[in-house]
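Running this now, will post back.
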Amino acid sequence: MSRSFTIVKESNGVRRGVLSTRRGVVETPAFMPIATKGAVKTLTSEELHDAGAQIILSNTYHLMLRPGMEVMKHVGGLHRFMQWDSPILTDSGGFQVYSLSKLRKITDQGVTFRSHIDGSEHLLTPENSLAIQDNIGSDIRMVLDDVRSGTSPVSVMKEAVGRTFAWAQRSKIFLSEHPTDALTFGIVQGGVDPELRRRSTEQLVSLDFDGYAVGGLAVGETEEQMFNMTNAVTSRLPSDRPRYFMGGAKPEQIVQLVTLGVDLFDCVIPTREARHGRLYCWTSNTPAIDGSTKWYVKHAIKNAPYAMDDTAIDPYCSCTTCRCYSRAYLHHLFDIEEPLALRLATQHNIRFYLDVLKKIR
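Update: finished.
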């Protein structure tokens, strides 16, 4: 039985739980705003707390390059650096390296890649990925995995699943030699092949990690494939460990993934859409949240009709943006390319995503 995760209530596979970390508890299902490089774009740590964020996500690849581990050690870790006193989960860097297809080489040893910043060469291994995350001060660390496109040939996916398992085994050896009170999650791969997903799940479960992530999805596969592969994984994971869906999901997709037993989510959608002036808003004060899109609407606030709309951006939201400013004002800020527009829009969209998970709980 896991000492870090407790299921408070469960019904037809949907779970409400409490994830305990060394820096506090996270009520699940939960959404993690993305602070890739040590900041959620345009927001302060205080604003994240005020919005209701319990935990945030940052990235090993970006932080190891800038500001670098020398700085990270000097300032006492990411929590102190960005003045965030709640849990932080860090990705291993595997997905970011995967996206640098022309700048990296994958071998059994690890991933050799060239920095997208200055072209310098680096080697990321299962061992130093965890060591870097330890320097960052992560409360939940992800093991290095071999990420491939879901449309890759079966032979490539088989190799990736095998390497992911081998790297996970090396990670467990490293953890036994460097004990920590941080949690460590394994990542299940396998693309859109049910048999490879089954194999990867069973392999990772045999290593007894603190939690498990569904990796390699939300990267171009169909929605049906995303749900089917998630179910293929969660149906085989131990019920007493938290489950994390890595990558993007629209609000209605999050609802569906929760019904498949997922506990943790991260996504760039709320911040990215905010920067383009697209805001997620409730359609009522007591919405029936389900797998449809009927319970929310997306306002393209830069469109001309909003220039004369003096109503609240979302009358059912209590964030600072919605309490203080009108749709017309936000339209104006985007029109004059005022940076404040990005802050106000991001404040609202982050609050919306956090509230979706709060209402689900």
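DSSP finds 13 helices and 16 strands in the chain. More later if anyone needs it.
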